[in-house]
Amino acid sequence: MGAATAWQLARRGVSVALVEAFDAGHVHGSSHGTSRIVRRAYADPFWVRLTGRAYDAWAEAEDDTGTALLRTTGGLDTGARRDPVGLARLMAAEGVPHELLTAGEAEARWPGMRFDGSVLFHPEGAVLDADAAVAAWVRRVRELRGTVLERTRVLAVEPDGGGARVVTDGPELAAGSVVVAAGPWLPELPLGLPLPPLTVTQQQVFHFRQLDPAAVWPTFVHKGDLQLFGLPSGADGGPRPAVKVAQHDGGRPTTASTRDGVVDPASRERVTAFVRAWLPGLEPEPIAQGSCLYTVTPDEDFVLDRVGPVVVASPCSGHGAKFAALIGRMAAALALGEAEPEPRFALSRVGSLV
């Protein structure tokens, strides 16, 4: 989110400094990897409409950076608790192309996948290369004469006259406005702002090799007893075609500073059991695994608001990657005083979340 915001500001001729505690594109937070789901299917029309705006923002990012960031695969929604029939009604109301399939029809179309009950397919589903997006935005910030400070840790953001002073373990910066896109580090920053309760969890992801390297599957979201998702692994799964499968719920509470990165064996077993039962087109043991962090609000909406000179542009509650290009645009508009916050993301809702 920080790289997207810096790119939006730099391309408008604004003097901008992007401050990163690690190397740009690091693996310690929530924004790394070559495979993230981009989808239109949500159970709330607000989010369906926002995904439409996000697709427009991704097209803008690809055009400006000259980098392919999204790969269209289509997307599936399955499982009784996911309610494919209800999702189909909502997609129809919002004018989003989709098909509602029987389990048999879906299995015939995508051999190697098993289904139970109705299956929603929407052709606009895609995979985002998050690593490529961050790299492209950072490159463009530099090309547009912005400053990128890597391995520089922010210690405090303090009001200073009409702007703010950013205290780091390196140079001290002064700015008219500061965008804080700290993700899981947000609860640890002394901002003095009325943030909602934030829960940071470590999530595990697993990559399973395809038995048929030529098979082309859509992304999927499944919600039954567990909530899981899957998508093509990209480079994260190694040189041969693989599928990334992970459990969306059930992450282990942690903090950005204390997470250990050790994969939970219970999570591995739950995901592997799902693959054995429902994805016979994959080898049943993972060939690679990893972890990332979620930072979640009680209502699972985002935080994107401005207080004085400070814009808070995180957390994104475990579903923000698909919106990164749009969040960069919205955060830049807040920083420049050109827009009011989206009420769903405003800090004014904090009292109702405590």
Automatic annotation (TrEMBL):
**Cofactor(s) needed:** FAD
Where does the source fall among the domains of life? Bacteria
What residue spans carry the region label Disordered? 239-263
Q: Which UniProt keywords apply?
A: FAD, Flavoprotein, Oxidoreductase
Occurrences of domain FAD dependent oxidoreductase (ranges): 1-334
Q: Show the GO MF annotations.
A: flavin adenine dinucleotide binding; sarcosine oxidase activity
Question: Does the record carry Transit peptide as a key word?
Answer: no
InterPro entries xref list: FAD-dep_OxRdtase, FAD/NAD-bd_sf, MTOX
The protein's matches in Pfam families, at most eight in alphabetical order, are given as: DAO (PF01266)
The UniProt entry, under PANTHER family, shows: FAD DEPENDENT OXIDOREDUCTASE DOMAIN-CONTAINING PROTEIN, PEROXISOMAL SARCOSINE OXIDASE
Q: What is this protein's record name?
A: FAD-dependent oxidoreductase
Organism, by scientific name, is Geodermatophilus sabuli
Its organism's taxonomic lineage begins at:
Bacteria, Bacillati, Actinomycetota, Actinomycetes, Geodermatophilales
